[in-house]
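2024-03-11 09:14:02 INFO queue: dequeued item Light-harvesting protein B-800-850 alpha chain, len=59
2024-03-11 09:14:02 INFO validating residues
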Amino acid sequence: MNQGRIWTVVKPTVGLPLFLGSVAVIAILVHAALLSNTTWFPKYWNGKAAAVTSQVNAG
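2024-03-11 09:14:37 INFO prediction written
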């Protein structure tokens, strides 16, 4: 681990929860942005089937 000396400045009992908490907050923000800015994502989460947009030619 090339960044091992960071724990001489920040205690692991403080740094790890802050890091993992920030990852969780970023994930929630990404999902919130997807929900508010797309039309397909809320339908996906509600379990609605995607519409078929192309047809296969029988030949």
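2024-03-11 09:14:37 INFO annotate: Helices lie at 12-37, 40-46.
2024-03-11 09:14:38 INFO item closed
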